[in-house]
Give the backbone structure.
Amino acid sequence: MMDKKVTSRQIEILYAFTIKHYVEYYDLQTELVDHLANAIETRWITEPNLSFEDALNAEFKKFGIFGFTELVERRQLAMHKRYRKIIWGYAKDFLRLPKILICLMGVVASYQLMATFPYVLAIFAGVIFLVFVGRFITINRRLNKLKKATGKRWMFQDNIYRCAGSSAFFYPGFQFVRYEGGEGSSPILVALAAVLMVAFALYSYIALFVIPARAQQHMEAAYPEYKMEMAQ
């Protein structure tokens, strides 16, 4: 007697099952569907008369009272870690010649401005904030178009675009830094503020411009099947 196999129709039911249990990302849905289908087929080896629905419910119980929630959270943490590694990879390029010279010039220029003009920090943050908000709106529209075109959400894709957007809204925090400037200001504090400004501007530039521009490349590296999905 041949072993029972999960049918294509049952695969569709498994996808619907993951959506019903609040798994909204297609990549994670696919991972869970593969896991559940394999587990059901393994169970059928020893229990061939067990119905598909009973086998599915038995396997789902193994995930505990929170269902797929803990798995989703673990995958989100893993994706955040992957995203941070990509950010750091690009940042390291700016710590090598000749790009490091641009960063150092930015620090020196920021130091000189803040040492002579106490409110430059707030003005700089305000201007950059407006630029970043405009960029956030642009990439958010791009993400929505991708979702509409494919009908799918990918966890890492959300990381790329959502993390980029969130960086823009951290920037106003600089506007509320209490900084007196002028004569008598601590050179160490001024230098620290200048370094922080340049570091955050660099992070935001990478998150908002560099990575979204190469999103396709990073998605294909994370998901080999992504290219085929986009080609459909």
User: Anything to note?
Assistant: The radius of gyration is 25 Å. Confidence is low (pLDDT under 50) at residues 172-184. The CA atoms of residues 58 and 68 lie 14 Å apart. The chain has ten helices and no strands.
